[in-house]
Amino acid sequence: MRLLLALTALLPLVAAVFKDEAYNIDYHHALLGLPQPKNTFFHPPNPASKASLIYTLSEKAIIGAVNPKDGAVVWRQRLDAATNASSALLREGEGVDIVASATDAEIAVWAAKDGRLVWREAFKETGNAIGLRFLEKDVVVLYKGASPVVQRRDGSTGAVLWEFSDASGDTPYEIVVSGSTVHIISLHSKMLGGLNIKVTDIDGVSGKKTSEHMLSSDSEVKSAEDIIFVGGHPTPIVAWSDKAFSVLKINVLGTKSISSFPIAKSDKVESIFLHAPSRLNSLSHFLVHYQTPDSHWAEVYHIDVAKFTISKAYDLPKLAGKGSFAASTSDAQVFFTRVAKGACTVTASQSHGIVERYLLKTFAPGVSGDVDPLHAISEVLPRHGGRPAVRVAVLLSTGDWALILNGETAWSRPEALTLASTAVFAELPQGERLARELAIEEHAS
């Protein structure tokens, strides 16, 4: 009787476990979700730090900092205000100890070291945040609403320092910062079809408009997807192409001139990516990555900052399969890291000579078969009299996020597990065979 009473008393506790945990996802791994290429970067947690963390804003709208040594999560925060994680933004600043995020209806600043919330500002009337940049120690935000608005906010408090409203009716696309100038990139519809790119320059100190001009892009740009890249200092450019990828056009912001670089039709390009450094004192060099269904290659370009001209410096050879490129900076030097099946190479931006090369047997332990690198970030640290230290964090087509240190896999994170919505328990086939064998033996005896 006592045993029956004891078991009855345990029933509410057992039921409570299932009631509390049912339909709630609790990751055994401290997962973040698949990192987004535009929102993932190496960055020191404070200006005095010589070591960097990896920061990312994932497709699950989770911000996190990862230790590149072992892949452990240092901190993570969920952006509950994000209704569309793909449009959320994460940005780093130079000489500050914060990172900033923007979602559909909220902007927030976080301590880069531990993820502590510094300040948060929700907005409804201004419109969705579609652009976010650092200007010195402050943040500049572009809101897309009935009338696009740009605000400069104090990085420590969130107070609005100035506000600029654009009543032109053009569609805002992005903002970038070059020196003390804020460039607003907008799309102006032509009556006969196509879009011209409009560049509006704002004084970063006063928030007043200083100039405005149109770029003749309507022959190529039919939608926002045709714009490949918009960057600020040290590579203040806007790049675009047509739907057929027959030509690459680039403008140095602050000028009206457009440089054109033809793309051979025989290449059958299906996508173009542009990789550029973000550190202010970096060389004004960038890389254009071309991808076809079965091959990839790249071209490196230099900007003459005195003449505001662009020239192609060299090519990186075509390789079979998918590949990823990443730009990194050490002092003023710019390095381009290439990750492809079987090899990882590092090239200095000044010339095509290989700085470092590693053979890759596999991208990550347990990952084999037809695996492609989807996108990567890198950190290259030259060492006097020796080989450079190279760290590459690469997202694989399997959903694994791996870090390659000097050609060896240091760790991998199974971020694809965040895509699972249900799980079931399954018996191993060996158990079924054993049960059948025991049944046969019992029947025989």
TrEMBL record:
The keyword Metal-binding does not apply. Coiled coil: none annotated. Residues 16-415 form the EMC1 first beta-propeller domain. The lineage of its organism: Eukaryota, Fungi, Dikarya, Ascomycota, Pezizomycotina. GO terms for cellular component: EMC complex. This is EMC1 first beta-propeller domain-containing protein. Keywords: Signal. InterPro entries: Beta-prop_EMC1_1st, EMC1, Quinoprotein_ADH-like_sf, WD40/YVTN_repeat-like_dom_sf. GO terms for biological process: protein folding in endoplasmic reticulum. Residues 1-16 form the signal peptide. It comes from the Eukaryota.
